[in-house]
Amino acid sequence: MTRRRVILELGTGNDLHGGDYTKAALRAVQDALHHSSLTLLRTLKVDPRTAMHVDVTIGVQKPERVDADAVKASLPHGIVTVRVVKGGLDVPDEEIGDVAVIASAGIAVSLDLP
């Protein structure tokens, strides 16, 4: 058996006030999930809880401020790994000393296939 990527979904999320990188990351993951349906897994009669490998990559300007465990816990199925890298976008509002945080998420789903 070889692990093969069968689904790739992308999402974006933001926290417009407060600079919460985890909130932006969670919203990016939810955006990606809402673009996807797991009908392929049902068709193949695959149990998504045990056979699906889910690799999440989050891009934000301050990766160290993302709670990767919270992101992992937000995924409903699969064997999940989360990697947080530098990316995304911060849009400062210098007038009020705030920042809008924009996160990007890539979610890759792999299965062990012959």
From TrEMBL:
Q: Which residues form a coiled coil?
A: none
What keywords sit in the KW lines?
A: GTP-binding, Nucleotide-binding
Q: Where are the transmembrane segments?
A: none
Signal peptide location? none
Gene Ontology molecular functions: GTP binding
**At the top level of its lineage, which domain of life is listed?**
Bacteria
In terms of NCBIfam families, this protein maps to: lin0512_fam (TIGR02058)
Name of protein: Uncharacterized protein
The record lists the organism as Vineibacter terrae
